[in-house]
Design goal:
The structure is a homodimer of 443-residue chains. Chain A has 443 residues and is mainly alpha-helical. Chain A has helices spanning 11-22, 26-35, 39-46, 51-61, 64-73, 76-85, 88-96, 100-107, 112-122, 129-132, 146-156, 181-186, 193-196, 210-220, 240-258, 272-299, 301-306, 314-338, 346-375, 378-408, 418-441, and strands at 139-141, 165-169, 175-180, 204-205, 224-228, 234-239. Chain A folds into three domains: 11-123, Alpha Horseshoe (MgtE N-terminal fold); 139-239, CBS-domain, CATH 3.10.580; 263-441, Tetracycline Repressor, domain 2 (Orthogonal Bundle), CATH 1.10.357.20. In chain A, the strands form two sheets. A three-stranded mixed β-sheet of chain A has the order 1-2-3. A three-stranded mixed β-sheet of chain A has the order 4-5-6.
C-alpha cells in the first residue's frame, strides 16, 4: 500500500518518482489515486506512469470521466501510447458510459484495428459473453508445424492479452481445435498442429449469460474459453481473471437478493434513491404479509383479552420461525446455485431439512416451554413449547419447498429471500399458536 | 452431459468406448460416475479412461475411498500411470482423509520425488497457502538466456502443473524475479533472463490464510502466485483455478454466517447432527434475545389489557424492522468483505444507511399508519406509523453500526448476521412501540 506521494517539483524528483512507480504494483497506484480528492492531482500523478501501468490503473478505477480527462489533457503521443496498452475489452467497458463527444475523441487515440474491435465490443450487453470477451487472442491454422506456430505467436503476441491457449482454425475460420501453450512448447518442432491439438473444444456463444460462463469455467477449470458467433466462427475469448470478478458479482447479487435487496443495488455505491427503490419492494411484501399476521391475531382478539400474557411470546415465536426458515432456505438456495443440490432430489432435500427443523424445534420447544411454565404458568408454557415444535417443522419445510418450487418453475430461487420466507412463516406460525393456545388453555 | 454408458462386453465395444471417452470432458465423466450407485460399475468405467482423464475424475469426485478402491484394484502398471498424472496438490488432498493402511499402499504408486512432495504437502492445513499450493512449478536461474530457459522448460514441463509464469531464483534458491511465459516467448533468444524479469515479485507465506490469498489474487489479477517459506525460498505456487473454488467457498461461508449458520455446515452435505450443531447457537441467541422482547411486553401488560388491539401490529413491527436491519447489515458486511466499504469511513456509511432507513421508514409509516387508522382507530394508526419511522431509522443504524464495530475490534463482521440484528432491533423496536403507544393513547 502507498501512503503518500509528493508530486515532483524538479527533474531529479521526477526521475526518482518514475523509478519508484515502476517498482510498485499498478493496482496499488490505482488505490492511492482513488483516494486523492483533487482531479488535477490524479491526472498529474498518472502522467508519470509507464503507459502499461496507466492502462491498468484505468481498468482498476473504472472511472470513464477520469480516463477521458487524463487522455484528453496529455500530449497526443503520450495518450496514444497509453491507449495502445489498454486491452480492447477494458477499453470498451470504459468507453461505454462516456458522453458521445468525449468517446469520439478518445476513440481517435486508438489505431484503426483496435478502434474497429472496440466499436464492435460496445455493441454487446455488459453481462453477456460479448461484453466480457476480448478480441485479442491467438489463432493458428491447423496445417502448420509447432515451430511455425511459435514463430507466428512471437509476431502476434504483443497484441494478445493472453496466449495461454492457442486456438486452431480451418480454412473457413471455424474453430476446430485447441492446444495449451504448454503443449505447444513441449511438442517437437516439426510436429503438425493438427496432430497435437485437442478437437473437442468447448466454446460459448457470444450472447450467453455471464453467470452460465462462470459456472462452465468453474466446472471445467478453464483458464480461458473461446467465444463463437452463430456460425461457429471464433470472435473472442474470455479469460479466468474476468470470471473471478463475475463470481464475486454474482455472489453479491445472491447475497443481496436473499436479504431482500434487488440487484439494481449491485453497483459499488448506488444513490440513496437507487437503494430505496431496491429495498422498498421487499418491505411492501413484508407489510402486506404481516398485515395477514395481524388479521390472524385480530381474529384471536377476544381470547387475547382473556389471557394477555399470550402476547408476550409473539416476538419469540416469529423470531425463531423466521430464523429456522431462513436457515433452510439459505442452504437450499445456495446449494441449488452451486449445483451441490439438485431440484430432482427434492424429496430427499425436504426430508433432510425437516428432520433438522424438527430436532431444532424439539430442543427450542423444551427450553422455552420450561421457561414459559415458570415465568407465566404451565399451560401457557406447554402451548408455546408445542407451537415452537410445530412452527420449526413447518418453517424448515416452507424454507425448502419454496426455493425448490421456484427452481422448478424457472424463477431464481434466491427470490425465496429472508423477507419472503419470514413473512410466510410468521402468518402460519401465528395461526398455529392461536389454535394450539385456544385448545390447551381452553379459551 | 453424459446420459448413459453401456459397459463393453467384447473388444470392439471396448475400443469404441475408449474412443468415445477420449472426446468427452473428464469433468462430465466425473458427473456421470458420481451418479452410478454401484462401486464395481464406477471402477469398471474408470478403467477405460486415459490416465490423465482418470486423474481429473479423481480430483472432481473428491472421494478418497473411490480413489483407493480403483488404484488398488488395477494392475500395478496402470495404477502407476494414473498416479503419475495426479498433480501433487490434488493427491495430497485425496490422501489426507484416507485410512493409514490404504494411504501407504496408494503412496507406493507414486515415484520417489512425487511421494516426498505429497508427504510434505500433507503436513499443511487445508485452508492455508501450504494446503492450496502445488510443488510443481518452473524455476530458472537469473543468469541464463531466454533460449536456454525455453529449453529448460521443455525438459521440465511434463512435470509442471502450470508454466504460465516462470520464477527466477538466485544461487541460494531465493525468489528474485518473475516473468510470464508470454514475455519469455516474445523476448529475443539471446536476452538474459535477468534483463527481462520483473523484480518486484509478490509472494505469499506458506502459512497465509486462503481468504487473504484469494483477495490478493483477485486484486492483482494474478494467474498464479508463488509461495515462500520463512526464509523466502520458493516452495510452491497457487494457481487461479484453485482460487476460484476458494472464492465460491468463502462466499458460501459468508452467506451461511449471515443467515445464522456456522461455517462447520460448509461441507457439501453434512450430517443432520452437523447441521443441527451449526444452526442451534443462533437459535439460542434468538430465544434469549426474544425473551427480552417478552420482558418488554410483559412490562406493558397492563396497558395491553386495556387496548389489546396493540398486539395485532407486533408481528408487523418486528418483521419490518428486522427486514430493514438485515438489508443495512448485509450491504455493510458484503461491502467490508469486498473492500468497497472501508471501516475508516464509518460516519459516511452510517449516514448513508440511516438516510435510506429514514426514507423507507417514512414511506412504510404513512402506508401502515393509514391502514391502521381505518382498520382499528386513528390514534393506534398514528402510534404504529410513528413507531415504524423511528424503528426503521434505528434498525438501519444498528444494522450498520454493529458490523462496523465488529470490524474495528477484529471480529468477522458477518457475525452481525440476520438472527443477531433481528433480535437486537426487535427488543429496541418493541420498547419504542410501548413508549410511543403509551404516550399517544394516553394509557
Amino acid at each position: 500500500m502507498i501512503t503518500y506521494i509528493d508530486l515532483p517539483t524538479n527533474e531529479d524528483e521526477e526521475t526518482r518518482l518514475r523509478e519508484y512507480l515502476e517498482d510498485v504494483q499498478p493496482e496499488d497506484i490505482a488505490e492511492y489515486v482513488s483516494g486523492l480528492e483533487d482531479r488535477e492531482e490524479q491526472i498529474a500523478l498518472i502522467k508519470f506512469l509507464e503507459p502499461e501501468d496507466a492502462a491498468i490503473v484505468f481498468f482498476e478505477l473504472d472511472d470513464f470521466s477520469l480516463v477521458s480527462d487524463v487522455l484528453l489533457s496529455l500530449p497526443r503521443w503520450q495518450a496514444m501510447a497509453i491507449a495502445t496498452e489498454i486491452p480492447n475489452d477494458d477499453a470498451a467497458d470504459l468507453l461505454a458510459d462516456m458522453p458521445d463527444k468525449a468517446r469520439g475523441r478518445v476513440l481517435a487515440l486508438f489505431d484503426d484495428e483496435a478502434r474497429a474491435d472496440i466499436i464492435e465490443l460496445l455493441g454487446y450487453e455488459a453481462d453477456t459473453a460479448g461484453g466480457l470477451m476480448t478480441t485479442e487472442f491467438v489463432v493458428v491454422p491447423a496445417f502448420v508445424t509447432a515451430q511455425k506456430a511459435i514463430e507466428m505467436m512471437r509476431a502476434f503476441a504483443p497484441d494478445a492479452e493472453t496466449i495461454y491457449y492457442v486456438y486452431v482454425i480451418d480454412g473457413n475460420s471455424h474453430l476446430v481445435g485447441i492446444l495449451s501453450l504448454r503443449e505447444l512448447i513441449i511438442a517437437g518442432p516439426e510436429t503438425a498442429i493438427a496432430d497435437i491439438m485437442q478437437t473437442n473444444v468447448m466454446s460459448v456463444n457470444v450472447q450467453d449469460d455471464q453467470e452460465e460462463i462462470a459456472d462452465l469455467m468453474t466446472k471445467y477449470n478453464f483458464l480461458a474459453v473461446p467465444v463463437v458467433d452463430d456460425e461457429e466462427h471464433i470472435i473472442g475469448i474470455i479469460t479466468v481473471d474476468d470470471i473471478v470478478d463475475v463470481i464475486h458479482e454474482e455472489a453479491t447479487e445472491d447475497i443481496y437478493r436473499m436479504a431482500g435487496i434487488n440487484e439494481s443495488e449491485d453497483d459499488e455505491e448506488p444513490s440513496v434513491k437507487g437503494a430505496y427503490l431496491a429495498r422498498m419492494p421487499w418491505l411492501l411484501i413484508t407489510i402486506f404479509g404481516e398485515l395477514g399476521s395481524g388479521i390472524v391475531l385480530s381474529g384471536f382478539q377476544a381470547r387475547l383479552e382473556q389471557v394477555v400474557a399470550l402476547a408476550i411470546f409473539i416476538p419469540l415465536l416469529t423470531g425463531v420461525a423466521g430464523n429456522v426458515g431462513t436457515q433452510s432456505s439459505t442452504v437450499t438456495v445456495r446449494g441449488l446455485a452451486m449445483g451441490t443440490l439438485e431440484s430432482g432430489h427434492a424429496l430427499r432435500i425436504i426430508l433432510r431439512e425437516t428432520t433438522i427443523g424438527l430436532a431444532l424445534g424439539v430442543s427450542v420447544g423444551l427450553i422455552v416451554g420450561g421457561i414459559g411454565s415458570f415465568w407465566q404458568f404451565p399451560a401457557l408454557g406447554l402451548a408455546v413449547g408445542l407451537t415452537l415444535v410445530l412452527n420449526n417443522l413447518m418453517a424448515s419445510f416452507m424454507g425448502t419447498l419454496v426455493p425448490l418450487t421456484f427452481k422448478r418453475i424457472n424463477v431464481d430461487p434466491a427470490v425465496a429471500s429472508a423477507p419472503f420466507i419470514t413473512t410466510v412463516v410468521d402468518i402460519t406460525g401465528l395461526l398455529n399458536y392461536t389454535l394450539i393456545a385456544a385448545a390447551i388453555l381452553n379459551i
